[in-house]
Amino acid sequence: MSLPTVHIIDDEQQVADMLAEFVHLTGYQANIYTQAMQFFEQNKPGDENSILILDLNMPNMDGIEVMRQLAETGYVLPIILVSGYDMGVLHSAEQLARAHSLEIIASLSKPLKMEALREILQVYSQDGMDAKTSSISNELQLTASELKTAIYSNQLVVHYQPQVDIKSGALVGAEALVRWQHPNHGLIYPDLFIPLAEKKGLISGLTEQVIKQAVGQILKWKSEGLMIHVSVNISAENITSLTLPEQLIDLLNHHELDASMLTLEVTESALMSELVTSLDILTRLRMKGIELSIDDFGTGYSSLSQLYRVPFTELKVDQSFVMKMQYDEDAKGIVKTCIMLGQELNMKVVAEGVEDKEIMALLSEMGCDIAQGYHIAKSMPADELVQWENNRV
Known about the structure:
Elements: E1 5-9, H1 13-25, E2 29-33, H2 36-42, E3 50-55, H3 63-73, E4 79-83, H4 87-99, E5 104-109, H5 114-132, H6 144-152, E6 156-165, E7 171-182, E8 186-188, H7 194-199, H8 203-223, E9 229-233, H9 244-254, E10 262-267, H10 268-271, H11 275-287, E11 291-297, H12 303-309, E12 314-317, H13 319-322, H14 329-344, E13 348-352, H15 357-366, E14 370-372, H16 382-392
Parallel strand pairs: 1-2, 1-3, 3-4, 4-5, 7-9, 9-10, 10-11, 11-12, 12-13, 13-14
Antiparallel strand pairs: 6-7, 6-14, 7-8
């Protein structure tokens, strides 16, 4: 698939021309609109292969009004927000866009740093577009019956994304990421079937299969001389199952595996569903030696209270902050604060979304413990991870 067209809405002709020239140099096509209504008159909803660079401060129709009209008229193109306002305004606009279910790639302050824009477009072309064209159309209709068959007939496969110690560079862990190897449609990514599993009551069975595969893989790596901790994401339904601690410890004991080799990642939103039961389950999991990670930290509504209530051993800084560190001082400040907070609470701190060596260097300066992201490696099948590690040595 060709690179997306970049639409530029900015009332300053000189700025728009400069952006268009730079966009062309990076390999994209560019269209300029100095009035927002020009964009709506010349384009129709449904052009999925495009990106919008949107200035917030414009006469007649400002950027906030543009986002409102995008949402009301069904446009789905991802957006890069730019503005001469302070970052607080940009962040508020970003949250508003997400409330409208619009996709925000990044927010940039004027004067623009073209290197930051280049990196954003590069990451999007490698990551966002790859995800959208993975091997299956987003329009594919998957059924609960198909997914149930997949769960119990070995169609689920687990890929692993390496996690490395920032100081030493050593491989210390991997996050287990489930895929569906569909017999007709090929490899399906989780964003297309996890919501279905949660809606149809299949998430517990799916998570059980992922954990079984992860435990089996830990044992296989151990036999090959690799001691790799594995993290598995669990849902709100999982942490309200009163039998989960016993099931997991029975599985680990059966394989004579140290419980600390397994980490369960829980999001803040999952914790809020049934807080008392969740606290019951998670506390008992920790008592049995299983590690607990709070995932997507900083994106919920009660982060500090969750850290106080739940015995987490790991704090995972959300990639939405990590990826913006080089050009967004507020994001950089949030990452730094998360690292300091995690260390004060005796937790390992993992930064996800580490896309380049500059971000890695910043995290090292801040004292972050562990990094995960495309700069290190993409997720991969287990045997490829072993080969990847051997090639590094």
